[in-house]
Design a protein that fits this description.
By secondary structure, the chain is an alpha+beta fold. The protein has helices at residues 36-54, 87-108, 111-116, 118-134, 137-145, 150-175, 181-191, 205-225, 227-233, 236-239, 255-258, 270-273, 283-286, 307-319, 331-336, 340-347, 350-371, and strands at 59-60, 63-64, 66-69, 74-77, 80-82, 250-253, 326-329, 376-382, 389-391, 395-406, 412-419, 425-426, 432-434, 438-449, 456-466, 469-482.
Amino acid sequence: MNDRPNTDELGASTEVVEQPLYEVRREIYMRAVSGWFARWRWALVFLTQLVYYGLPWLGWNGRQAVLFDLVARKFYIFGLVFWPQDFIYLTGLLVVSALSLFLFTAVAGRLWCGYACPQTVYTEIFMWIERKVEGDRLARMRLDQAPMSPRKLGLKAAKHGLWVALSLWTGFTFVGYFTPIHQLGAEVGALAGMGVPGAAPALGAWEIFWILFYGFATYGNAGWMREQVCKYMCPYARFQSAMFDPDTLIITYDSERGEPRGPRARKLDPKSLGLGHCVDCDICVQVCPTGIDIRNGLQYECIGCAACIDGCDKVMARMGYPKGLIRYTTENAMQQKLSGRQTVARALRPRVLIYSAILCAIIIAIGVALYARVSLKVDVIRDRASLSREIDGRWVENTYQLQIMNTAEAPHRFAIRASGAATLQVADADAVEIPGATTRMVPVRLRVEKGSLPAGSHRIEFEVVATDNPELVAHERSIFLVR
């Protein structure tokens, strides 16, 4: 057996080094932090979760206020009912979301990631539960390093039990946006044996799947993967730099003020020691949810949560140094020594103004379209089995199918009229009653006197109007055939 190292043709050693494609996860024990940015972050946690968990329980006109009824193909959002034909509004919402992300990123970096992203929000909640059950950073580290014991087993079981309960409730709420949540609750209660047998329909297989799947995703992402989702799974971290420029507010360590770093007594003057203001306490690393050291410069793993700013400011206050060693600032502000007012003024640059103008224009356009939206839609379908026929030797008749969609929640009685020829009349003169949020196919026969129109196709127009509200009217064009 040859134990000599491999050599190339020139005799140089060519040692083979294996490089793993995926870095083994290093456990991050995030330290609790308080401060101005932490309060903002928790305010958004409360706001987003109040909306998410509370919205399905709100009632509106005897139904759930927000319900996406995929089976009936109706989306209820408070007083509005959207149908598949209203897909344009979803497109507008997606465009607004994308432009908002571009705008916020251009102004102040990853604001979405640091404060409102579901991954950030649920990680914050899960870590809060972890701290309440197991203790803060040092207590959790000691617990994980200790051998298994009844106390350790009990704490771990309690933590994961609370995580699973919250995850399942999150999955239940998610499905409650698609199945009426009161009905879903009765179904889950019946399945768990807490309801009256036969009082509620059986819980569907897809409902069970999505409750468990969404709950499992929440438990796995927020409880176990945490920063791994932001580092490796989220594509936003990879292309965020394309949205940055030298005037984008980012979390920055002031190396000119902080270096050289080193520990010192509180009463000593750092200048006399040849040190900067950074005391090398590593608090900024300990409070970071992704475990990076911001003193090494901006990194794609930074989610912009500003926890390092809160942690560093507390240390600066204890040492009697000015706050802001780590702060929101821009590349130009650091290089050109701009004041805070100058930095904010430069944020209103053409790129930001263009994003803002386009975003406002789209929001206004969507708002106007919703305000002017008529809750009546009509489609005309010609009966191809019978293009044209004579009736009693006096009339020429065409048959149509009118799809009348009453998108309002109140029922209406609609009269059907037609115009386009002198003798054109509707053979079915009775009005049609259509319940709220319902579509109906209505057969309609149109007649003209024989000989009043030459052979060929003639343009006509249908008018469908609500008898109780003349402003609720729709017009649709078609053709009348004469042989």
